[in-house]
Specification:
Number of strands of chain B: 11
Structural class of chain A: mainly beta
Largest sheet of chain B: 7 strands, mixed
Shape of chain A: globular
Number of helices of chain B: 0
Oligomer: heterodimer
Order of helices and strands of chain B: EEEEEEEEEEE
Order of helices and strands of chain A: EEEEEEEEEEE
Radius of gyration of chain B: 14 Å
Distance between the termini of chain A: 40 Å
Chain lengths: 110, 116
């Protein structure tokens, strides 16, 4: 079955860049997503990328996809304390259900 | 435009009782998904519904769990005879389709079920 893996924790200093990594196993993945979850809240869709793309940039967010290695990353430039949250990588093969990683807890140190 | 609404936000049930979780999708969305999040884990897909149809229930436990999305009203996730292991956050998401494919799922705030 599908498997999506992420490291559990990441700490960065305010103003630095954060890079959150994700690997997946499903070679038929068509869409890959990044969601943000703040404490006690639901998931906020940050961005997504189609598997035929290598990179997508949206303001402070840059998504890189290495399809050969099945590796996805999310870079947050100029990280702020408000970016502290859990970030989930998810993939879909177009079957309409998402497969999530376990999430990476990002802590931003002032 | 209101987002995905879920209620209640918190639900406490004793073992053996029934839990009913409600989800109203975003306006204009006709697809609803239910996910379960156990403590310190990612979300696990349970079921995908369109109006009056269950499209994919491959993630739903075979017993005690059921879901519906009637023509009128919210989608309901029903858990009968709850057990402690059902304690989790249950998230609903909704989407529309573009060319028959749902790209973006928007999530509600979740219902946190505690079974005592």
């Amino acid at each position: 079955g599908e498997d999506v893996e992420q490291s559990l924790f990441l700490s960065v200093r305010e103003g630095d860049s954060s890079v959150i990594n994700c690997t997946y196993t499903d070679s038929s993945s068509t869409y890959l997503y990044w969601y943000k979850q703040e404490p006690g809240a639901g998931l906020q869709l940050l961005t997504y990328i189609f598997s035929n793309m290598d990179m997508k940039q949206d303001q402070r967010l840059t998504v890189l996809l290495n399809k050969k290695d099945k590796h996805l990353s999310l870079r947050i430039a100029d990280t702020q304390t408000g970016d502290s949250a859990i970030y989930f990588c998810a993939e879909s093969s177009g079957a309409n259900n998402l497969f999530f990683g376990t999430g990476t807890r990002l802590t931003v140190i002032p | 435009n209101a987002g995905v609404m879920q209620n209640p936000r918190h639900l406490v049930r004793r073992r053996g009782q029934e839990a009913r979780l409600r989800c109203s999708p975003m306006k204009g969305h006709s697809h609803v998904y239910w996910y379960r999040q156990l403590p310190e884990e990612g979300l696990k897909f349970m079921v995908y519904l369109q109006k009056e149809n269950i499209i994919d229930e491959s993630g739903m436990p075979k017993e005690r769990f059921s879901a519906e999305f009637p023509k009128e009203g919210p989608s309901i996730l029903r858990i009968q005879q709850v057990v402690r292991g059902d304690s989790a956050a249950y998230f609903c998401a909704s989407s529309s389709t573009v060319g028959g494919v749902s790209y973006e799922q928007y999530f509600g705030p979740g219902t946190r079920l505690t079974v005592t």
